[in-house]
Amino acid sequence: MGVAIGVLGPVQAWDGTGARLALKGPRHRAVLARLVVARRRVVPVNRLVEDLWTEPPPDAVGALRTFVAALRRALEPERAPRERPRLLVTEGPGYALRAGSDAVDAWCFERDVEAAAGLPPARAADRLQQALGRWRGPAYADFADEPWARTERGRLSELRLHAVEAGAEARLALGLAAQTVPVLDAHVADHPWREHAWGLLALALYRCGRQGDALAVLRRARALLAEHLGVDPGPGLRRLEHDILDQSPHLGQGPAAGGTADRVWAGASAAYDRAVASGARVRLESTVGLLRGLAVTGGPGLLAAREHRVAAALAAEELGDPELAARVIGAYDVPAIWTRVDDPAQAARIVAAAGRTLAALPPEGHDAARARLLATIALESRGTPAGPGTDPPSHGRRAALGAERLARALDDPALLAFALNGLFMQSFHRTGLAPDRDAIGAELVALAARHGLVTYEVLGHLIRCQARSALGDFPAADGHAQSADALAERNELPLVTVFTRWYRVLRRAATGAGTLEGTAAAYRRAARDLDGAGMPGLEHGLLPLALLSLRVSRGLPAPTDVEDVAWGPYAPWARPLVLLARGDGPGRARTALRALPDPPGDLLTEAMWCLAVRAAVDTEDRPTLLRARAALTPATGELAGAGSGLLTLGPVDVWLDVIATALGSAGGDRR
To answer: Considering only the top CATH level, what class is 4-148?
Structure first.
């Protein structure tokens, strides 16, 4: 039925597009929550009345029936007046919720945790992360004091704690001790009576080469248990303390052999601190090298890398040495695939610093430094508006072309890969350039494979996956997605799967391989990968846009309940359709269309124009149709939006035919 119900946090429900359903008052939500607790079993009317009211009013049964009727209208809005409900049903003496196994977040959470128990560590860690990502707050948060919810809240909360600890065990088995420490540190701070968690934290610290900290953690656990519970640690913690004191070999061997690598890292970094003087210029260049590695870890690492990168660039400028500044600014050659910057203010500061450094370099020589600065400007200037023509080229595109020219002349593979990434980011000055991007991706794959540039090889495959999707060549796109996944798994590049999972939902949407509800649910699952991925430029508004595109591509209107929908940067293109769906009349939608700017030059340009076309047809807005026709015509033969690797609105040719019909052009004239 496409309805999703959430109880892992405030009780809410969403329709097949991800729009939140209006469940009215707290007792309406209480009825829904009480039926979720019953897990598809019938709850008698008299029991529901007792649970809803401490002192039931005289017409409590009538009020309950009113709540149920309102819930049915919200959960099944398309049900005919006399059609039997299929979700919230009347059965025997009461009511039952016949939701599917994927419809309730708590049920999905339990299934994920159970499934993870039988998986190898890497897959178990992913499955448990997916499970924990379903939580939006305490279970049944708005009914914490209700007796009927207490047992279920406690059971789910305990299962959540188990999932956190099982996820930590899986990461330790993969050798990811350093990443596990902060998670467990926060966990024991919130739940200090869980001995198993204390043991995991101590083990993680030991495998990071922090034996003293590991023993201190165990001492802290002993003191807390003795002071507040009057008990000594169990045999597991006592044995672990003994093994750490003895530096028992089994603590750093077996599946969690990453402990040795962590100790090497700790030793090398300590030696660097001792050997390299504080304030030495070489520290700035070394810092950028660390930030490059940090960025590909995703999540907090990526966010921290971007922030410290700006600080490093400005610090290098302050030293008054343009050659050092050029090396520091240009060394951050982290491959980028998404065409909207995550932090426009940070990007603008980097572009400005690179521009100042270019101007300060001596006029002769330094071609490699110039190429890196130009490539940096090209990457950080992405997403400028796309016009119907190509002249004059934008500042960012001029920088990309200059970087490419210098890199080819220098015959430097790594520099050329960086420049090609900038050229890719500046290949959106008009629509219809998927073949050009495919060629860039092909060169990147070949170049990177020859010279061992793994991250750029992955980038090339992702670019080709996007480009082949835009051209409707899904077998080729599948191959590139698989190649990217294989490289990511071998080289610990977690962000790659975010894009390949979204691609597979796009493929499903484009080929009609599933129902609207099933594909919408798949998009919602893919969107969970974005939580904490450190890519706000990708995350903000993407899920609502994907669900809207899915509806529009199938001829359905936008959802009407959009009060809580965060459209992000896509709001101007969604707003006219939302106004029409809410029945506000064509006037307001037409006004919104007339104020619509050209979309940014990025992977979703064609998609934004198609949304504008849909609203312009419904409002008979000829100027917008003419603008859209001029912009979309170069993309003839492509799938609108599919070049993003994330979503599509179908063939551009179909939209051009829609425009031609709306403009009254006989025979589909597209002039």
So the answer is: mainly alpha
SS3 percent helix, strand, coil of the chain, rounded to 5, is: 65, 5, 30
Length of the chain measured in residues: 671
DSSP line for 107-157 = HHHHHHHHHHTTS-HHHHHHHHHHHHTT-SSSTTGGGTT-HHHHHHHHHHH
Tokens of 79: 């049900």
Measuring CA to CA, which residue among 21, 16, 17 is closest to residue 32?
21
Q: Can you list the residues of the chain whose pLDDT is less than 50?
A: 1, 253-259, 386-390, 563, 666-671
Burial class (CB in 10 A: 0-12, 13-18, 19+), 633: middle
| pLDDT tens column, 181-190 | 888 998 888 8
> How far, in Å, CA of 478 to CA of 467, rounded?
12
As annotated, the residues of the chain forming the CATH 1.25.40.10 domain(s) are: 175-258, 281-499
DSSP annotation string for 494-508: TTHHHHHHHHHHHHH
CA distance 449 to 66: 66
Q: Tens of pLDDT along 6-27?
A: 999 999 998 887 788 888 889 9
Rounded distance between C-alpha atoms, residue 311 and residue 18, angstroms: 39
In the CATH hierarchy, which fold is given to the domain comprising 175-258?
1.25.40
Question: In the 8-state DSSP scheme, what is residue 20?
Answer: B
In the chain, the amino acid numbered 562 is V
Q: How would you classify residue 95: left for phi > 0, otherwise alpha for psi between -120 and 50, otherwise beta? A: beta
CA distance 395 to 139: 51
Are 329 and 418 in contact by the 8 Å Cβ rule? The answer is no
Which amino acid belongs to residue 171? Answer: R
Q: Any idea which fold 281-499 has?
A: 1.25.40
Instruction: Give the pLDDT score at 563.
Output: 47
pLDDT at residue number 553: 92
d(CA 8, CA 11): 7
Long-range pairs for 517-521: beta carbons < 8 A, 24 or more residues apart: 517/1, 517/2, 517/16, 519/550, 520/2, 520/16, 520/17, 520/18, 520/547, 520/550, 521/2, 521/4, 521/16, 521/102
For tokens 């968690």, the residue is 197
Q: Are 648 and 506 in contact (CB under 8 A)?
A: yes
Q: How far is CA 442 from CA 37, 459, 503, in A?
A: 53, 10, 19
How many whole angstroms separate alpha carbon 370 and alpha carbon 442?
Answer: 25
Domain with CATH 1.10.10.10 in the chain: 4-148
Amino acid at 161: L
Distances 43 to 39, 51, 661 between C-alpha atoms, Å: 10, 11, 55
The neighbouring-strand residues paired with 96 are: 89
Contacts 24+ apart (CB under 8 A), 81-90: 86/1, 87/1, 87/3, 88/32, 88/35
Q: Which residues, 6+ apart, have CB-to-CB distance to 273 below 8 Å? A: none
The DSSP H or E segment spanning 610 is helix 605-619
d(CA 37, CA 156): 11
Number of Cα atoms under 13 Å in the Cβ half of residue 397: 16
